[in-house]
Design brief:
A five-stranded parallel sheet has the order 3-2-1-4-5. Strand 4, helix 5 and strand 5 form a beta-alpha-beta unit. It is globular. By secondary structure, the chain is mainly alpha-helical. Helices cover 51% and strands 5% of the residues. It is built from 21 helices and five strands. Helix 4 runs parallel beside helix 5 and helix 11 packs antiparallel against helix 12. Bound molecules: flavin-adenine dinucleotide. Flavin-adenine dinucleotide (FAD) binds next to helix 10, helix 12, helix 15 and helix 17.
């Protein structure tokens, strides 16, 4: 019996573990384990589980069509696998590598140990550009390119049935959580919505339509990174021969989009290489900087969108309602929590992890550390929330919609009974962070962070340009 263990890879196409299992003798058991430890974790939420459940129902439908329904089991992974081994035997266990949080990291180690001890061959394949046991960041971009250029793994046409029992999975409320939705989202972006991507990604008003909105599909693996990269490049290649008036705009947008697909793995690689950054400052010299001054009242005001800064509050309330917000607004919310409210990043990170339907630990913690100034290698980016509101929501319609108590006001951008004085707060933050940044010990650590995690410049003239700008001293993201 070949067991294929599905985790954050809820698809049948470009799925190497499933493909390899189907080539071997014997029934194929597609397995998903519902793990209480993950569901109860402080970075998990009903939003994630609902999306996953909807995707699992769809995955089961696709697998049934091939001959082998999805088996859902509940429990600790090793216990579940051992039970299947004992009752049915496992000739081979197949899975994708996962760059997850501390819980899934420890779980994967336990499963590897169990497989070794019980003599079950266990093979894991990479599923994006993240490289396991990476020795050095030199040449990483080339490795990423190589992986993305490899052929998409064919979908098996038949899976020998297994006859194993499954537990029923409750229905899910999540809309748009199927493979078809992932494909339509990519197609509509590449065929039309993405035209003004570069210009419209920064405002939450235009980003909703003009950004790809692929993040949740990538995070839960409804499509593979390689599929997205290849379809994007296919579209770019077709454009190269088109003389349409919009071709130039398209080329610009697709270049920016392609770069962000690369960044997806670039950020995840940081957590893969250093799992501790989920919990600890990347540069330890920042330890103790904010922890002792954590103000619960401020944190609650930020969480509820009641800081008195209309644009911050509108963005937070929009995020709570939609499970998504664009990059710049995520960065601004974190900047506000970290600099204006002087909150250590860990609790805000857990809160936003729960709110993001696309929660991807590798991107999340790396971005959080970057936006709160603890990486030692990135320019401090302190957003002025009032200016952002004026720039990104000039007529105030977004603020009026999401902060309805201001709906009748003629002017909505200026703070109303603000929790803090922005100018004084960022001056304080800059001073405190600067003091640490200038320490010899912090500089030494920052150099090793740059060596370990910093992006490397690409050969000039090579396309696509994927060197993350912030790591050269400017804004990283949009
Ligand atoms: C504090 C903070 C936390 C974040 N947490 C997450 C997270 O948990 N999961 C997540 O997928 N993204 C996260 N991001 C990155 C980014 O905001 C989202 O990927 C993006 O907003 C998703 O919308 P989209 O799919 O329409 O993006 P698009 O702009 O259409 O980009 C396409 C894809 O590229 C990747 N991408 C885009 N921007 C970035 C970036 N700056 N860094 C890394 N990858 C990027 C994503 O996979 C995204 O789906 C975070 C950003 C910040 C500032």
């Amino acid at each position: 019996m070949q067991v294929v263990w599905f985790k954050r890879d809820l698809r049948i196409s470009d799925h190497r573990p499933l493909f390899e299992a189907a080539l071997r003798d014997g029934p194929v058991v597609p397995l998903f384990i519902v793990e209480e430890e993950i569901l109860q974790a402080p970075d998990s939420s009903a939003l994630h589980w609902d999306f996953q459940r909807a995707a699992l129902h769809d995955l089961d439908r696709q697998l049934r069509a091939l001959g082998a329904p999805l088996i859902i089991r509940q429990g600790e992974a090793v216990a579940v696998l051992e039970e299947i081994r004992r009752d049915h035997g496992i000739a081979h266990l197949w899975a994708h590598e996962e760059t997850g949080n501390g819980i899934t990291y420890a779980r994967d180690r336990r499963v590897r140990r169990w497989a070794r001890d019980s003599g079950v061959p266990f093979t894991e394949f990479p599923q994006n550009g993240v490289v396991r046991r990476l020795k050095s960041r030199d040449g990483w971009s080339q490795l990423w390119e190589k992986r993305m250029a490899e052929g998409v793994t064919p979908t098996p046409v038949y899976l020998p049935p297994h006859g194993l029992a499954t537990v029923a999975l409750e229905p899910a409320a999540a809309a748009r959580a199927t493979r078809r939705d992932a494909q339509e989202t990519l197609e509509s972006f590449l065929a039309g919505r993405g035209l003004r991507y570069t210009r419209e990604m920064s405002s939450p008003v235009s980003a909703e339509m003009s950004c790809s909105r692929l993040s949740e599909y990538l995070a839960w693996g409804l499509c593979s990174m390689r599929e997205v990269v290849q379809q994007t490049r296919h579209r770019a290649a077709r454009l190269a021969s088109e003389a349409a008036p919009e071709a130039k705009l398209w080329r610009q947008s697709l270049r920016s989009f392609d770069a962000r697909l690369h960044w997806h793995c670039h950020f995840m690689q940081k957590l893969e290489d250093e799992p501790r950054i989920e919990f600890e400052n990347m540069v330890r010299a920042y330890d103790g900087l904010r922890e002792g001054e954590f103000c619960r009242e401020r944190f609650e005001a930020w969480k509820q969108g009641r800081t008195g800064f209309p644009f911050i509050d509108a963005c937070m309330r929009y995020l709570v309602a939609n499970g998504w917000i664009n990059f710049r607004m995520r960065a601004m919310l974190v900047s506000f929590a970290s600099y204006d409210l002087w909150l250590h990043w860990r609790e805000p990170a857990l809160y936003l992890a729960q709110l993001f339907r696309d929660y991807e630990p590798g991107i999340h913690y790396s971005q959080f550390q970057m936006q709160s100034g603890t990486t030692g290698i990135n320019t401090l980016r302190m957003y002025n929330p009032t200016k952002q509101g004026i720039d990104q929501d000039p007529d105030g319609s977004f603020i009026r919609r999401w902060v309805p108590e201001l709906a009748g006001e003629p002017e909505v951008h200026q703070p109303r009974r603000p929790t803090v004085d922005h100018v004084a707060a960022v001056a304080y933050a800059r001073k405190r962070l600067g003091e640490i940044r200038r320490l010899d010990s912090s500089r030494t650590e920052a150099r090793s962070v740059a060596q370990r995690h910093g992006s490397r410049k690409r050969t000039p003239g090579r396309r696509p340009r994927t060197t993350p700008p912030a790591e050269q001293g400017t804004l990283f993201g949009d």
